[in-house]
Write a structure and sequence with these properties.
By secondary structure, the protein is an alpha+beta fold. It has a domain of 126 residues. The chain has 3 helices and 4 strands; from the N terminus they run αααββββ. It has a 4-stranded antiparallel β-sheet. The longest helix is centred in the first third of the chain and has 61 residues.
């Protein structure tokens, strides 16, 4: 029994050493789970902040795209209004219903004259027409480029009336350069340019 008792004592001692080792390991590892949890929380916070900033940037890009399209549509509407305005003003030599949007009160003479356009006359400086479309303001400059007999017509330019509009045997083609610029309340701008041919009969 003594031998057995010695074996039991030896195994008890081994168990005590193992328990001490386990206790000391546990004491050293007590804060380890907390550190890991904090690191995971930090990583999740960074991912969340990046997702928020990415979505904010995407919203700003979408807003700028919408504003650009609105500016372009407003500038294009300036080109659209010049078609009937040129036809009416050049033919009737008066402003009629277009009087409220005409800035340059000598526009009828400019449209009917054979004088070349003035380089200093632009959408920013001395515009011919101006519109307000909600939050957009549109300025339009119309420049008379030149006039010539229309193709297939035997009459000359100076037969009866020099200029475009009524008079002579007609069929004179006048060419105009139209510049339209829109500005929004936040300061963004869009510009469109086109050429217009007016045929007088």
């Amino acid at each position: 029994m003594v031998a057995n008792r010695g074996q039991f004592e030896e195994s008890d001692i081994n168990k005590k050493f193992e328990m001490k080792d386990t206790k000391s390991k546990i004491q050293y590892e007590k804060g380890f789970i907390l550190v890991i949890a904090l690191l995971i929380l930090l990583i999740l916070t960074i991912i969340g902040l990046l997702a928020i900033s990415t979505s904010t940037i995407e919203v700003m890009i979408a807003g700028n795209t919408r504003l650009r399209e609105m500016n372009f549509a407003a500038a294009e509407s300036g080109l659209e209004i010049t078609d009937p305005a040129i036809r009416f003003i050049a033919f009737h030599s008066s402003f009629g219903d277009y009087d409220s949007i005409v800035n340059d009160k000598s526009l009828d003479k400019e449209l009917r004259s054979g004088n070349p356009f003035e380089p200093g006359d632009t959408c920013n400086k001395n515009p011919d027409l101006s519109l307000n479309l909600g939050s957009m303001s549109v300025t339009i400059d119309i420049d008379h480029m030149f006039a010539s007999p229309c193709e297939g017509v035997a009459t000359g330019f100076a037969s009866g009336y020099e200029g475009t509009g009524m008079g002579g045997s007609g069929n004179i083609c006048a060419y105009y350069r139209v510049s339209s610029m829109s500005r929004s309340v936040v300061g963004s701008e869009s510009a469109v340019r086109g050429f217009y041919r007016y045929v007088s009969y």
